[in-house]
Automatic annotation (TrEMBL), chain A:
Keywords: Amino-acid biosynthesis, Branched-chain amino acid biosynthesis, FAD, Flavoprotein, Magnesium, Metal-binding, Thiamine pyrophosphate, Transferase
GO molecular function: acetolactate synthase activity; flavin adenine dinucleotide binding; magnesium ion binding; thiamine pyrophosphate binding
Keyword Magnesium included in the entry's annotation: yes
Gene Ontology biological-process annotations: isoleucine biosynthetic process; L-valine biosynthetic process
InterPro entries assigned to the protein according to its UniProt record, in alphabetical order: Acetolactate_synth_lsu, AHAS_TPP, DHS-like_NAD/FAD-binding_dom, THDP-binding, Thiamin_PyroP_enz_cen_dom, Thiamin_PyroP_enz_TPP-bd_dom, TPP_enz, TPP_enzyme_TPP-bd
Source organism of the structure: Azotobacter chroococcum
Pathway the protein acts in: Amino-acid biosynthesis; L-valine biosynthesis; L-valine from pyruvate: step 1/4; Amino-acid biosynthesis; L-isoleucine biosynthesis; L-isoleucine from 2-oxobutanoate: step 1/4
One Pfam family recorded for the sequence: TPP_enzyme_C
Residue stretches making up the Thiamine pyrophosphate enzyme TPP-binding domain: 396-545
Cofactor (UniProt): Mg(2+); thiamine diphosphate
Classification of source organism: Bacteria, Pseudomonadati, Pseudomonadota, Gammaproteobacteria, Pseudomonadales
Name of the featured protein: Acetolactate synthase
UniProtKB/TrEMBL annotation, chain B:
Identification of the protein by name: Acetolactate synthase small subunit
One GO-annotated biological process of the protein: isoleucine biosynthetic process
Record text on subunit structure and interactions: Dimer of large and small chains.
Enzyme Commission number(s): 2.2.1.6
Catalytic reaction equation(s): 2 pyruvate + H(+) = (2S)-2-acetolactate + CO2
Annotated ACT domain residues: 4-78
GO function term, MF aspect, one: acetolactate synthase regulator activity
Top EC class of this enzyme: transferase
Protein keywords: Amino-acid biosynthesis, Branched-chain amino acid biosynthesis, Transferase
Gene: ilvN
Family affiliation: Belongs to the acetolactate synthase small subunit family.
SUPFAM superfamilies noted in UniProt: ACT-like
Amino acid sequence: MELLSGAEMVVRFLRDEGVKYIYGYPGGALLHIYDALFKEKEVTHILVRHEQAATHMADGYARATGKAGVVLVTSGPGATNAVTGIATAYMDSIPMVVISGQVPSTMVGSDAFQETDMIGVSRPIVKHSFIVKHPSEIPEVLKKAFYIAESGRPGPVVVDIPKDMGDPTQKYEYVYPKKVKLRSYSPALRGHSGQIRKAVEMLLAAKRPVLYSGGGVIMGRAAAQLTELAQMLNLPVTNTLMGLGGYPGNDRQFLGMLGMHGSYTANLAMHHSDVILSVGARFDDRVVNGAAKFCPNAKIIHVDIDPASISKTIKADVPIVGPVDSVLTEMISIVKEIGVMPQKDVVASWWKQIDEWRGARGLFPYDKGDGSIIKPQTVIETLYEVTKGDAYVASDVGQHQMFAAQYYKYAKPNRWINSGGLGTMGFGFPAAMGVKLNFPEADVACVTGEGSIQMNIQEMSTCLQYDLPVKIINLNNGALGMVRQWQDMQYNSRYSHSYMESLPDFVKLAEAYGHVGMRITELKDLKPMMEEAFALKDRLVFLDIAVDTSEHVYPMQIRDGAMRDMWLSKTERT
Amino acid sequence: MRHIISLLMENEPGALSRVVGLFSQRNYNIETLTVAPTEDPTLSRLTLTTIGQDEVIEQITKNLNKLIEVVKLVDLSESAHIERELLLVKVKATGAQRAEIKRTTDIFRGQIVDVTSSVYTIQLTGTSDKLDSFLHAIGTSSILETVRSGVTGIARGDKVLTI
């Protein structure tokens, strides 16, 4: 029998759970736990410079691996600084366990120094939360936290631990709980067979089918099954922003992202479809546009692990609640069993139509200009070439995010790391750091803008401490590009607070933090300098790239319209 | 349409705040709410009434079911059920009014549970409609104070909500 203090149990549990890295920041309420960490050899703590970055690092790791990222923050401001990162993970269904310190249980409720009701503050943005009432329950509570975070529709779980629960003088028996059971929580293990068969029959009979998949396919580890089914039935595939990489982005059957900034081809295919197979997506407002006008002739098959996602905004004709991997596997075997493929001429005429929409200019055509100024789209295309399409790309939020989604062709799942649901500026850089730490051999790029990067730029210091040579691709247009775009389109170009005055010299700033900075202003330098940056394997390189301020992201759907209603450029619309 | 949703949840601190929080967070409304532990002290039974379109009610029940602490849930209004609410009301009772109020209370099968020279305290159980009708019959001018428990209910017949 092993006797451990509550603080030692926290650290020991993390080791037994196989956690390699945790991301955090110490403080009064956590000192017992940090003292236990001091003696720990297998679990490595990464000291960030701001707690928000700790959550995004854990999140980046979780998105790249599918496993829960672990965050350790102190009570009060430590916990509240983590809130944005928790909300980011919640909106995108990312597994995360956040251990927050709390004032001693005897002082809870007394407005003690650094006291915040973290359970209350985080309640609307967690999958679940626990407060530890006795040190002996720490292993079981933590096991439940990991189980809940990683199973079903994943999400963040907060475990609030009052300081006295870690008292080093009070020792209790420690046993690692291999399994836990919750009577009130049992995510579906498979979909309804009758419904799955019905869905397959509908797909086989469809004349204009589209497969629309989302982040559920990435986190549900179902990209291989999705690809197999799509290729078997020759289905056109579109991905949501969260679902990119769920189907190879460079394949002929891929129509690009759909929705607000989706491709003309994908949005038209959706609008004219007769059967939509939606897998692990939630018919988000950035996808459906005006719900009343959404895909008027389509029957909808909706596969999702979360019953509450089904028929929330768009009514499903065939709802299937279940893990996407097992449902897709079952669909594949039913197709094989039936042995009847969709009629060749029907499929061919649908593809002919789609190829007409796609045209000769590809999915996301843009005006390359005369080369006197670097277009942001060109930067992403160059990044794709330089990294041979095989990098992890973490993005911040704004125009650069949309360009990175449109022009980098993600061939594999878990490579595209972005804050889709919450749209958190400041996410990209720490998320890239979390990926790089866990995949030191891989190329990891952070695509950002001069607005977003400044929201967590202090983490350059963390990168130096832990040797995290990510490549920062700063699309510097001197403006909050997406805000400016909306102001151009809807506010008669009144640029209210959308420009960044007094920008720092990013090259010098990177150098001040001990890294390499490069400024690119000429198109001819773009590729060679980017190659040079990626060749510096062991250095963080900050590429500050001057890009066209006036550029807009297109297509852009017209608000409250149908899927097919889009601006295609500043002057053309559908 | 009005729905009566009844659920069993873990009898733990914080569980109730998650249920209530869900309603404000997702812009659903709660008309009434009652909660108390069951014969199994690890479980609480919570009953609430809410008004909404079918799609909204569907989302409410799905999201309630998603809460980790909610063990089981039933929408009582989907089938035959018994619905009760308790009302305590203090009314002015002087002179001729005393006999009139006593008669009205008898008609509604209520009980006068406390008496002073000028005040009756009346207890009445029934559906919310019945309580509303009683208050209407008594007349607002003589009512001094009312307190209602909120709706609770149970399915008719063999159906039970249990784990």
